[in-house]
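Q: Got a minute? One more chain.
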Amino acid sequence: MEFVILGLPQEPAGGVAGWAAGLVDTMGGPGAGLAIALENLFPPLPSEVILPLTGFAAGQGVIGLASALFWTTLGSVVGAVVLYWIGMLFGRDRIHAIWARLPLVRSSDLERTEQWFARHGTKAVLLGRMVPIFRSLISVPAGVERMSLPLFVALTAAGSLVWNSVLVMAGYWLGDRWDLVETYVGVLSKAVLVLVLVAFAGYVAMRLRPRGRAQHRRVP
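A: Always. Here it is, folded:
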């Protein structure tokens, strides 16, 4: 395949954009799929850069649009299955053993989480593929809980296809302004992270409060 230089507004000579552009230029659709598979395994690699850039490459004729969607979705599934197997091999007993050593948590908390996943796991996997940060993390509990692998693959493929299509098509239609997608999705990712931190802080506060009251009552 002839090497094609993507005419981006910000030269992708380095960083994630340059790395992704190099993969797409040299490998085509499979290169985009490889980039997304690695993004699933290493969340610091941002899909909000890789996917719109892939869409822009499709708009420039470097790869076909159908190829971009197929390979990026396949890459998402492959990366998710690797994490699923990690969760499965790690196992429920080992998770419980580690959980028991953590401060501010109880075994009943983990058991309730497992019960929740048993009831809502299909929705969690499907919708989790469309939520920044949780896109990769949701695969691990699915493996720990030994969700049916064919069902997991189907849900992951469906959710990933929606997420990938939105970002790839955004890059395709925005053209050389593809990097705007990173800006808006980055804001969404930060909002999700803030919500998670607030929820965690609230959880810790609730765990500490009963202890404080109990110690206060013991003081004569």
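A: Residues 21-205 form one domain.
Q: Perfect, thanks.
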